[in-house]
Amino acid sequence: MNATLSCPRPGTSPVLQAWVNDIERRARTRLGMGRIADYIPALANQDPACFGLAVCTNDGNLYMAGDAEIPFSIQSLSKVLLLSLALRTHGDGLWRRVGLNPSGMPFNSLMQLETEQGKPRNPFINAGAIVVADHLVGAFATPAKHLQDIARTLSGNPRVLIDHEVLASEWGHRARNAAAAYLMKAFGNLYNEVDEVLTAYFACCALRMSCADLAVALNYLAADGRALTTGEPFVPPAMAQRINALMFTSGMYDAAGDFAYRVGLPAKSGVGGGIVAIVPGRLSVCAWSPALDASGNSVAAQYALELIAEDLGRWHQ
Ligand code: DON
């Protein structure tokens, strides 16, 4: 089958569409819980009543419910794309500068960086993604633009954009990320200028994509590394497997163990309220709702993924 001819397409199974609609209905009962991230002021005025869900099966069917086509700030979901790109470009050398273990700390904590000689615990906390961004600043003239192009290709949506208001807002409130970057620079673990690396990192976080865009774009993690929109390998199968492993252990910050117990899927969240989860060999899911719990994970999106995981055994494609 040539995947480029018809992928993704609107889902063809009425049963699966009804299931996705039902998950949306049930997840909306969690709206009103949690708080919108306001430490990035440009995110503070998101509508807490939004909820979107998109499920993309590996054969290219896309099922959507609610606000699945509204673009939102992907924030830390960009860390999955950044890591994939860095591993494609530099291979396992990255792991000399970034660890592979859960931090058990908030995503923007500085405590371990000082005692662990400026080597972040993993690529999904802010400090780890800043090192990954440093890698890419060394490799590409305009790394954020490059990531935007990749996000467009993988999602099949040429309207994916960096939101410059969010970028400026993060830059204006960068003290904690700048502190992490300077600390890593002091330990020799940041090669380029701090301002240049932070700008690239913030620009990647400021990409705007919808649940549908993200479920399609990150489907390669469910499909042994093969991109749905191009039919070409984006990363080798073993790399997709390893990225999934890291998402499983560190994708949900200090709540990773709790989420793994409840949902049991590799997942990554962002403070814009999006969460992507992967069912290897079968499908990718993105759920989005802006209000977050104390760890920075969307309350309603987590619940939707919990419901999806409960039901997975019912569907055999
Ligand atoms: O650097 C930050 O704090 C944000 N740009 C990204 C944080 C984020 O999404 C972490 N997620 N839960």
UniProtKB/TrEMBL annotation:
Gene3D superfamilies: DD-peptidase/beta-lactamase superfamily. Keywords: Acetylation, Hydrolase. GO terms for molecular function: glutaminase activity. Signal peptide: none annotated. It catalyses: L-glutamine + H2O = L-glutamate + NH4(+). Its EC number is 3.5.1.2. InterPro entries: Beta-lactam/transpept-like, Glutaminase. Substrate binds at residues 76, 126, 170, 177, 201, 253, 271. It is an enzyme of class 3 (hydrolase). Homotetramer. Belongs to the glutaminase family. HAMAP family: Glutaminase. NCBIfam families: Gln_ase, PRK00971.1-1, PRK00971.1-2. This is Glutaminase. It comes from Halomonas rhizosphaerae. The gene is glsB.
